[in-house]
Amino acid sequence: MSASRKSGITPRLRGDEGMWTFDNLPVKLLKDRYGFTPKQAWIDHLRLASVRFNDGGSGAFVSKNGLVLTNHHVALGQLQKMSTPRKDVVKAGFFAKTLKDEIACPDLEVNILVSMENVTRRVLGAVDLKSTDKERNAQRKSEISRITKESSDKTGLRSDVVELYQGGEYWLYRYKKYTDMRLVMAPELQAAFYGGDPDNFTYPRFALDFAFFRVYEGGKPVRIKNFLKWSKDGAADGELVFVTGHPGHTDRLNTVAQLEYSRDIGLPLYLKFAAKKRADFLAYAALGVEQERRAKDRIFGVENAIKAVTGEYEGLLEPELIASLKEAEDSLRAAAASKDAWGKIAAATKKAGERRLQTTYRAYAATKAAGLAGTIVRFVAETAKPNDKRYEEFRDTNLESLKFRLFSPAPMYPDMEEFLLARALEDALQELGSGDAFVRAALGGRSPAKVARELIAGTKLFDVAARKRLIEGGEKAVAESKDPLIAWARRLDPVYRAQRKWYEDEIESVTVAEGNRIAKARFAAYGKSTYPDATFTLRMSYGKVSGYELGTTFVAPFTTFHGLYDRAIGHSEKPPFDLAPRVKAAKDKLRLETKVNFVTTNDIIGGNSGSPIVNAKGEYVGLVFDGNIQSLVGRYAYEDARNRTVAVHSSGIIEAMRVIYGMGKLADEVAGR
Amino acid sequence: MSASRKSGITPRLRGDEGMWTFDNLPVKLLKDRYGFTPKQAWIDHLRLASVRFNDGGSGAFVSKNGLVLTNHHVALGQLQKMSTPRKDVVKAGFFAKTLKDEIACPDLEVNILVSMENVTRRVLGAVDLKSTDKERNAQRKSEISRITKESSDKTGLRSDVVELYQGGEYWLYRYKKYTDMRLVMAPELQAAFYGGDPDNFTYPRFALDFAFFRVYEGGKPVRIKNFLKWSKDGAADGELVFVTGHPGHTDRLNTVAQLEYSRDIGLPLYLKFAAKKRADFLAYAALGVEQERRAKDRIFGVENAIKAVTGEYEGLLEPELIASLKEAEDSLRAAAASKDAWGKIAAATKKAGERRLQTTYRAYAATKAAGLAGTIVRFVAETAKPNDKRYEEFRDTNLESLKFRLFSPAPMYPDMEEFLLARALEDALQELGSGDAFVRAALGGRSPAKVARELIAGTKLFDVAARKRLIEGGEKAVAESKDPLIAWARRLDPVYRAQRKWYEDEIESVTVAEGNRIAKARFAAYGKSTYPDATFTLRMSYGKVSGYELGTTFVAPFTTFHGLYDRAIGHSEKPPFDLAPRVKAAKDKLRLETKVNFVTTNDIIGGNSGSPIVNAKGEYVGLVFDGNIQSLVGRYAYEDARNRTVAVHSSGIIEAMRVIYGMGKLADEVAGR
After folding, report:
1. So what's the ipTM on this one?
2. Chain B residues within 8 A of A557 when measuring between CB atoms
């Protein structure tokens, strides 16, 4: 229903822009630009070979025996949880030579999207147009909870309703879920994350950012029909390629007022907050070698976020970007029925901004244990209510995955918990003042250090069995618990609920309702000739392998092992440009001309990490692990000249497996002999 | 005489800024910053080992048998002149295995600075303070001509008076001059200029931009006492290093009004003109393989200039730069006696601007033959006058070098001459109009193509003997010559002289006189605590080997042969990133970890190409061949964070000589065994 003929407005798709849903691939664009028309079987195969990592990230099946390939940095959280002072798989890597050596992940769930159903009519039909925005928000949420519950009861599959096009469409996505994931192989952090934070989001890169897991069911590797066949030579310059994966979040359909709010308030505030967190993690890591080991994934996470958000922020600071989005918005608004929707969203955004400091620094879940306590307190209260009256995350369909995380055996470290909790409470006190409701409930006038010490010293929540007892004991067990952290979470609960209610009633109900009105206008103008904002659900993007112009010269599309050694020697092997010992030792055995990393024009964002890149034959040619600096503005708009997806080349993965890591058998399983 | 104590003004030296004259090295700075104090013998040795290439460029003696090392791109003009369709040494390189194989350059003169004498008092003493600016300009020039003539007559050495600090000082520099230069070795253009125009002025680089000449006298290699000893390992990260060479021209002491003029009028006009020239050369090169060969050094030259000037222009567009220079100028002006000097220079600059189009497009010397004709016509007229009344370039002390160039046997190509002359005349007609005095004299109402065809078809000036006959025949021979190009130059002569007189009387006399007044103020404030603008005379700069931060990450100080192959393979060996056949073939024999290029913080500019980089022991560690993009603003101010000199590493030169080019014997001569 391309209504651009009616309105004269066309969507501004630039270059190879778009994170397309699998029900609506840009078939005409692909045909016109690349002379390629995907068959339905090809599309379905890619969808069923694509894996979502619920920790955040993507991956793909690459062997019939359940082998999943993703990024090392997607695996990092699990690697950290599997490590001990004596066996640090983050630092040393992990290499299972046989099935017996593969070790179970503590709390990793992956999903495969097995079906998609348009439920827009049902969701919108449940909304009474005569109700207030707030009532409609509740009606919509209740209907969604009924749809997912029915689906889950009927099929036993994980069932989510996904809102697309700002409420223009609703889809029921059903997932096959796996929770017995075992680690097969991971390079050393220094090889996977070569160049560290400085090189992150830059290009050229030389990162072996890959890791293999295997999916088990009933104690055995699952047999997989839809896995990606390995390409013999990998991606070639100029080749048409596709990325399937789970981009987390974009704000491309936001109003200009929302972007200006992010630019002027949201992002600067976040960056200040994140800098504090980074300082906290570094301060903890500085306490000793073991503390440094424990903090590694946190430091990576926050530095990665800071660098990404800084790039987004700098993108928003470009006046041209806002101007071009404003122009598009103005023409859409001129054609729209509800012209006041934009103004109402602007007002709600302004209102949200007034409490932004609060939402940032109220540290309900500053540490793992604190987060668990809050979740347990809410879990027992919410599950005592009828299903459709609960907070979304406690609805029946979500409980299984939630319990999987809640009862994770992953290690927690009391000294780390105490250190970080004290810091977070100190920040809250400083930023919000002693009169803030959260600060009052959390500290009761005492010092952050003292409160943190008592809470962590006294809690039993480090023990999985204790958490299970509370959940099983329900409201009564939680109400009577003497655990100081549970008692603390009980005190915070009313503050949390009041804050959340205010947000849902005053902000969300407006932005959703008015967003729906804008979506309606957009649908009237563009139909589905464009794609919805990212929602951490399966998308496909297309593009080609391509270098780019930068600083008068050309960045090459490919890097090789030669380049890795060049960079290390050029920096006299000073960290973060030093070589992992295995990598250094392998130099004379490697085919140095083998491609290591490469760039493509595909449109991706965080959450796509670990996505497969496939060629037109559907063969595995590369592993997405990053976007370049110029791609970061992609949260708001696709920059067509220099936006690039950064990937590990399939040939580099195999060469590293065989020559650096002696994992020839695994390489054979993936790529044949 | 550091009068900063008097005025409270201090010169703004940033980082490792400065192109210092050898009489005034920054001894205190070196001691304070690097704990190094050079001995006079060390300084003299470096001076006497440093070589000026009069074509434009620098070099150094690197063996006792007269071997001079410079850049391939400094040698390029000679290589082009030595090439023929059958033996293209630009493309194929040149490798003399024995002395017998070394071939003479057609017209290469080099100079070694053997003595320096301060003649400020004598030059300024000859100026009658009661005269007009115009008269003083003439008095100054006459006195300089007397000084150089006396010196030349007395010593037989090439003698130049150099104006430093905008007339704050005058120095008599005496040079040992060599004109029997023979080519020993030059890599292929594709290896020397790897990455071509896109990579020019960028970093990381992988250029084997070196060439060897040998100096002969009396048919034998000269014995050289002061040559640079080769360093065993070359430059190391962080090491203190020195560059000695001949920076061509900087405008750091110009007034802000002059810089604004360059920004608003001078540079944009030049860039437009250069783009036309580039188009002309490319159009000629497109005519065939042989034409492409002939035009190669012209295309390199103009593209190099466009890239450098674009960098300078972009530097001037930064408002912060002009603001900081304005601030320094204001405080100098406040302390100065002649406060109206700045205003007078601004007025003269504005006046010059009004005729800038004319000075740019009046193509007296658009081609080699046209230039020769004009020089011959002026030569006979000027040399008939008393020595101190002549144009500077025709004074007795300059005639030997001038005749060396005038009678060069280097090839000229009539079809190329005609093509380029027609284009230049066409541009003059278009830009200046048919009423312009030059256009009228040059075309006489006829078409540029027709005029060019007749001039080039009829001239005998391609023959060295014909040029000699005219010079020897003097004014009479030239007046009676029927050579159409000489007749053409005779018609242009009055236009040329009027234009030059206008410039000297109206512009130069003001900028020199007022510049002297500003120089006086600057001397009163700073003394010699700072350095003079570059004048294509010998300077030393100090600095250290150092990478830099760029785009969130760090550019490594060194590149290696690994990096060269990485870049070639990464670009699928597409030009200009393809490998010269010898380089490609050598891959498995090279020690790939050998350093190829590196960067330092030294302050250099065009003219420094070919300069040696030495360590504190005075050993040869690198060969300057470029500045990075961030250094180009250096024409106006040194940018301390990211200004870098780009050099070929001494180890890379030797490895390439031995392994790629089979020039082990020459490598032994340079570096020992």
Report:
1. 0.94
2. 570-572
